[in-house]
Amino acid sequence: MIPASNSFLKYDDPMLIKNSETESPKQPSDFKPATRPSKSKPATSEDNTETKQILEAIFPPREWMDGNQRWVQKVSTAPSTRADVIQLKEQLNTKLNTKLQQSCSRDRPG
């Protein structure tokens, strides 16, 4: 079961990392410090790998156990669509309105 989250981040599908009845998959290679790409160099898969590593350093993957299985879910690197942005704006407005209503109800003398 995917853990509940109050995050505005978009995540990839969860991946099974370890099942106690099977071997765990090999871990990814160690983090390499990012180097600033030159402006004349076109984007390559190496740049994409560095971007993913930086993103994972800033937003670590979510991990949880479900029975004897260990699951990991990483932040998505897919570009956002217009619909994603509109949905995120609605979620943010809903949270802000809820906070404002809670704050106003506490300030009212009762």
TrEMBL record:
Keywords (A to Z) from UniProt: Coiled coil, Dynein, Motor protein
Pfam family, one: Ax_dynein_light
Bias kind Basic and acidic residues: ranges: 10-24
Gene Ontology molecular function: dynein heavy chain binding
GO CC annotation terms, alphabetical: axoneme; ciliary base; dynein complex
UniProt-annotated stretches for the region Disordered: 1-52
Function: Involved in sperm flagellum assembly.
PANTHER family according to UniProt: AXONEMAL DYNEIN LIGHT INTERMEDIATE POLYPEPTIDE 1 (PTHR13183:SF0), AXONEMAL INNER ARM DYNEIN LIGHT CHAIN 28 (PTHR13183)
Family named by the database record: Belongs to the inner dynein arm light chain family.
Record protein name field: Axonemal dynein light intermediate polypeptide 1
Species of the source: Cyprinodon variegatus
